[in-house]
Inverse folding.
């Protein structure tokens, strides 16, 4: 496998979109990404309201669904009816925090763990990686040497709102690029499905100003990614399992 240098994600005036429809290449049914607020089935909602522990009750509902969907992604069989149903339940029902944790599980299944720059997290980054987050404006990066995504929470504009799902998405594209040894657009099934986001002229200028010439094409490709967090998790599993 070819080793490539991958650019980190820095603060941009045009944040990456994370609410675009599911790709028709890897999922053969037509699905759109869920709403910002979690939607839980009425019967589950009522049952958990009466339960002594709301969180434990919800986990009891979602955990089997998560386990099945992890299996769907691992086997690259997300188009099957059961997998489609599980995707809908997770996409509509998981809160932002729960989604970040589950997406991290999907990334880890592809062999790419998500590490955090603070020691209080169970998935905290080792010191030699966490110290890189002291760079001004660095929100996250992919370490090809460690094959891991590092989230720099200390540089987030709104700390306390989660790890940074948009950063996870962006860096996962770089991880997939590493798995295939360069641009993802050379993979026929992926060529047009994921990379349809239109960039502002200022974003192209930003890439030229902030990144080395050899990194610019990969950074632009990552910024053009038009899928959501589940899309990129499937892309990552597809690219890294095929490498």
């Amino acid at each position: 496998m070819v080793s490539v240098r991958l650019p980190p994600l820095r603060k941009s005036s045009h944040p990456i979109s994370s609410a675009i429809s599911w790709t028709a290449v890897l999922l053969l049914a037509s699905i759109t990404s869920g709403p910002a607020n979690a939607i839980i089935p009425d019967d589950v909602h009522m049952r958990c309201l009466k339960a002594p522990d709301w969180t434990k009750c919800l986990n009891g509902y979602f955990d089997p669904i998560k386990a099945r969907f992890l299996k769907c992604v691992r086997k690259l069989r997300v188009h099957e009816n059961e997998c489609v149903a599980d995707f809908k339940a997770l996409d509509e029902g998981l809160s932002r925090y729960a989604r970040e944790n589950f997406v991290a599980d999907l990334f880890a299944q592809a062999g790419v763990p998500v590490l955090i720059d603070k020691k209080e997290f169970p998935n905290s980054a080792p010191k030699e990686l966490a110290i890189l987050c002291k760079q001004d404006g660095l929100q996250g990066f992919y370490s090809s040497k460690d094959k891991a995504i590092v989230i720099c929470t200390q540089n987030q504009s709104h700390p306390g709102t989660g790890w940074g799902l948009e950063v996870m998405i962006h860096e996962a594209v770089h991880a997939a690029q590493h798995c295939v040894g360069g641009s993802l657009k050379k993979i026929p099934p992926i060529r047009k499905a994921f990379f349809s986001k239109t960039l502002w002229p200022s974003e192209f200028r930003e890439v030229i100003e902030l990144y080395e010439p050899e990194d610019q094409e990969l950074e632009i490709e990552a910024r053009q990614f038009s899928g959501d967090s589940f899309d990129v998790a499937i892309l990552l599993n597809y690219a890294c399992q095929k490498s």
Residues 44 and 61 are 8 Å apart (CA to CA). The chain has one domain: 21-242. Residues 1-6, 11-36 have pLDDT under 50 and may be disordered.
